[in-house]
Amino acid sequence: MYEFNPAAQFFTNVRQINRGTKAPGDGSMMSFIQSKDKTLLAGAWGDGLYRFDSNYNMRPINIRGFSETMAPYAWSLSYSHDSSVTWMGTQPGILAFNEARHTSVYYNPRIMQNRTVRQAVEDMYGNLWMGTQSLGLFKWTVQKARLDDSFWQGNAKCDDAVTQYEAIPSTQVQKIINDKKGNVWVGTSGYGAFVIDPANDKVILHFGMNEPAERKLLWNQVPAILQYDDSTMVIAANGIYLFNINQQKIVTTIKIPESIPSLISAMEKDKNGYLWISTTNGIFRLNPRSKIFVHFDRVDGIANDLFIVAASYTLPDGKIIFGADNQFVVFDPMQVRINEPAPDVAIAGFKLMNESLLVDSLVKLNRIELTPKNNSITIAFSGLSYCGTYIIKYKLEGIDKEWKRADQFNQAIYSYLPPGQYTFMVTSQDAEGNPSHNVTKLVIKVNPPFWKTWWFLGLAVFVFVALLFWVDKQRMQKVRATESIRTRIATSLTEDMSNSLSSINISSELAKTKVDTDKERTKEYIAQISETSNRMVQAMYDMVWSIDPKNDTMLNTIDRMKSFAVEIESLHDIDIMFDIDEGAADLHLDMAHRYELLSVFKEAIMNAAKHSIAKHIQVSLRLKNSKFFLLIEDDGRGFDINKAALGRGMNDMRRRAADIKALLHIESEENTGTIVKLEMPV
């Protein structure tokens, strides 16, 4: 079913008649200009030059020197600076038509090598700029060949006046215009756009793919250029670029909708500021402020929507003409009314991890909840209208900072959304930028993994605080234990020193009483004083050594034991041997265990060397079942345990073993040697 509304048919299709065959022409309509008599001149490739009246009926060309059936192919039509001459770019050469003289003259400079002139535009100084099919740009310098009688008689020396413009490569020139300051803008098919100062013929600006951001184009083919207002130039190059003349930079880039694949052919501006853009797939109307396109094609009454490069013209009354493949289209932009309001937008599809879900069920939910691993979504939407004069915009609050314009697929894709709650919003805008009445919303929540939930984080904080408390408690316990050990060591040392000093004091007093009467006895007392003081000094050295953290390994303790054994061997005729297993050597002992173990060892060695008169001592260190064993065996004369049980040395060894929770066992008999065995838990 088709709907036809004559009042909504905005476009008039005009097709030329080939004068030779009397059949509809097949040539592309390439150029247009309104003559002073209000008729329209139009150039058609292959069919020649045509004249149309205000109703677009064909009229005779009526130009002296032109045959009605052999008129030239006018690729471009433009007025001279003073509007006295109509310049025609032909195939090849250039043709000048003087409407007042009602005559024309044709020139084909040799330097142009019979190339088609696609564009011919006169600058503010009267020089003619000619863009060719493949040789780039040429300049006709008016001072070298003025438009005088000699010119109109065909006697101008144009070969001397025409030079090739070397600053632009040999390429196809598609568009030439003058801006309001008199600069010449040139659009090419492969080198971007150039701006020339005609006062000195220098390129002052270049736009292209390799230029900096302020002059960068996404494509180097520029088929259309126009001046939008005093401060803005519009460049068409697979998109619309708004160049601010004052700021000297591109301030806005607008891409042609991807939903309608097409290449830009020509461009005109209407009185309301809309840009009308002909393409290879219809006509667009663009609102530069809202960036909204409205598309017109054959459905809207355009007979042929394949439009020709640079084939456009705005008539003095505001009507716009676009040349197509075998016709031209004329319309009044002021009569094009688009009154369709923007429709509401509905959610048409929802995919989770590329699996489609039932939309009807989802839209009824207050909130769509997703798991941490299923967090990639695709939302499809559609406007509830068959009218195409609107755009759709969407935004995911929490992710998108600005509204996004929907592409031709009308879907939004979000991959791997982080945990959080989002609101998806979608709306539409009509051709004037007015929004739809309602904004469609969809609330989506991505649940966090359990280690990011509030309860887990709270538990983690609690555990962390508890761990800190436990670590601090352990640290304080260790500090207190260290202080306790130091206190115990200091107390033990104090007792040892006190006993030693008391012994020294008693021995010295006895020596004083015997010094005159019993010299031998006095020598014994002095020897006791020397031995006691030496033991006291050794005890102080052992305490300082034990406190040093560098000596916390068993290897350090063993080294000190061996060092002490060497000293004893040097003082007594005795041989001390060590047997140490690997497990015992790898132990780490605290200061208390180091000090007490070393003290027990020294006491046992001293007893064996001094009192047992042993010749050999075997020291064994073993680690077994988490217990450390110290075994000291000698071959001395031994002693009666019961008689020596109350001796100071034995009691001192038992006390030190008890302080480190070790078991001390001593075996000895007279004339059989002695065994000292220490069993210490580790």
Structure characterization notes:
The structure is a single chain. The protein is an alpha+beta fold. Among the domains are: 26-165, Methylamine Dehydrogenase, Chain H (7 Propeller), CATH 2.130.10.10; 345-449, Immunoglobulin-like (Sandwich), CATH 2.60.40.10; 453-547; 548-682, Heat Shock Protein 90 (2-Layer Sandwich). Helices cover 24% and strands 34% of the residues. The protein contains ten helices and 42 strands. A five-stranded mixed sheet has the order 31-37-36-33-34, with no helix packed on it. The longest helix has 61 residues, at 454-514. The radius of gyration is 54 Å and the shape is elongated. Residues 1-7 have low confidence and may be disordered.
Explain the layout of strands and helices:
Blueprint: E1 12-14, E2 29-34, E3 40-44, E4 48-52, E5 58-59, E6 76-79, E7 85-89, E8 94-98, E9 103-107, E10 117-122, E11 128-132, E12 137-140, H1 149-152, H2 158-161, E13 162-164, E14 173-178, E15 184-188, E16 193-197, E17 202-207, E18 224-229, E19 232-236, E20 240-244, E21 249-254, E22 264-269, E23 275-279, E24 282-287, E25 292-296, E26 307-314, E27 320-324, E28 328-331, E29 345-352, E30 355-357, H3 359-363, E31 368-370, E32 377-383, E33 390-397, E34 404-405, E35 411-414, E36 420-430, E37 440-446, H4 454-514, H5 519-547, H6 554-571, E38 575-580, H7 582-585, H8 591-611, E39 616-624, E40 627-634, H9 641-644, H10 648-659, E41 663-669, E42 673-681
Parallel strand pairs: 31-37, 38-39
Antiparallel strand pairs: 1-28, 2-3, 3-4, 4-5, 6-7, 7-8, 8-9, 10-11, 11-12, 12-13, 14-15, 15-16, 16-17, 18-19, 19-20, 20-21, 22-23, 23-24, 24-25, 26-27, 27-28, 29-30, 29-32, 32-35, 33-34, 33-36, 36-37, 39-40, 40-42, 41-42
Helix pairs in contact: 4-5, 5-8, 6-8, 8-10
